[in-house]
Design goal:
The protein is of the alpha+beta class. Helix content is 31%, strand content 19%. Strands 8-9-10-1-11-19-12 form a seven-stranded mixed beta sheet. A six-stranded mixed beta sheet has the order 14-18-13-17-15-16. The longest helix is centred in the first third of the chain and has 22 residues, at 44-65. The chain is globular and about 70 Å long. Keywords: Signal, Transport.
Length: 560
Amino acid sequence: MVKKSWLLMLLMAAFLAVAVAGCSGGESGETEEQPEEGSEEGTESESESEGESSEGESTEGESAAGDSNTLVYARGGDSTALDPITTTEGETFRVTENIFEGLVTFAEDSTEVVPSLAHDWEVSDDGLTYKFFLEEGVKFHDGTDFNAEDVVFNFERWMNGDAGQFPYFTMFGGFKGEDGAVIKSVEAVDDYTVEFKLNKPQATFLKNLSMSPFGMSSPEAIEEHGEDYTSNPVGTGPFKFVEWKPDQQIVLEKNGEYWRDGLPKLDKVIYTVIPDNTARLNALKNGEVDVVDGVNPSEVADIKENPDVKVLERPSMNIGYLGFTMGRDNPLQDVKVRKALSHAVPKKDLIDAFYYGQAEPATTYMPPSIAGYNDSLEGYEYDLEKAKQLLEEAGYGDGFEFDLWYMPVPRPYIPEGQKIAEVLRQSFAEIGVTANLQTIDWGTYIEKADAGDFDAFLLGWTGDNGDADNFLHTLLGIGSGSNYTDYENEEYNEMLLEAQRITDEQERIEIYKEAQEVVNEDAPWVPLVHSTPVVAVGSNIEGYVPHATGSEAVTNVEKK
């Protein structure tokens, strides 16, 4: 356990570094250098510029928030795309949940699979055939009819792509022609019946179909806009896309021909960007916006005392982690070095300092709310002497340097990326390791993490479907579009593929527990925390239900 006096000094150093950065016009201290392509994006001057922009947006938002039928949702960062299949980024799904709908979806308050564009379905005894019966009379936002051929079009589009284009389609084992591909064919039986033939059973097939990326797009809109479709989305959902001003706001309006009677209840939804957590919360208190995410845990107690604001807890189904990218030319490729750094992370004290009781330490690679969680794993306890010993054994007793990247926007699992990175840097310095802190704009951050350009990085994951596969395989499986560390272990990967094929839940659970032991020995990450994110809304907002997946449509929300 870290002595409290040491932690206090460490935190003071972190805050001082932030202050120095503000005075010097950079994100980091004098010993840190920003990459050339990120020199402007990472500067304090841009933060000031964003602050001015946010202030201007607040004026517009204040006017909109005063509209009884317009919801203004303030968040810390912008979406990176509006075609959800093309990204793995949560700010995208937060918006596209309102534009697109899939064949099936999740219940409002759980990850139970319920009907959406398909009102019913049948599964063959061998698990290789799924037949979906579609709702009739549904139209896309461009006025074209939705039918079985549109489902075929969407899946043919994704199946014939690759992980770079459609990273989430790797949830189905691979693309057309690849050995691991789960989906063999998708055919229209008639106008409102579609049949999926699988190459092999997949236990998570329906849960995967329920996820945000697999919403149905208008084929005509895709053909009309081509590569620009990601900024001109057309679905069947409760709200239609109006405009997107990058880093400022996304505007949606009510779908007047929505197929569910009486919905949505709002006329318009505006997703605006206010990067600073405190400024975002102040906008809510001042009535300039209606909903804010990314609330500082330190401010929750104060919010609960405000009669004009309600605090809503999002069910915890996430993990924040420090990832080590494999395959780069640095000491982090040595497992003993990764284990040494794992022993040098004071998780409990990070939680005490930055989460205020709204998180618990992570000991493995998935949250305890997911079936298959291995509660016998204790993780790597905080032990600086053990860390130094491992560095000596690895031949790095005199230390080394590496770049540690942190997110420029608040996320549910990492609410204050720079401050947490500062603490990690100080702790690593205690064992003779120098971590040079780096950051860049959010969209580029995700791209560079995906490309393997970082030595180490802070990131996290909010579960998409409530299944262990969505953590262990999606984040660390070979070929997965969200395996940013490029971790490869054939034994581990085969275990996860076997668990996908098995339909007996208890057998799957045992495989996942064993798989966690395997990956724990390789230490491609330092699992940091599982947080309980908070959403704050105006006291006049009703019907808003935060979902465990981190994204929810506002179909049933209304302002009283």
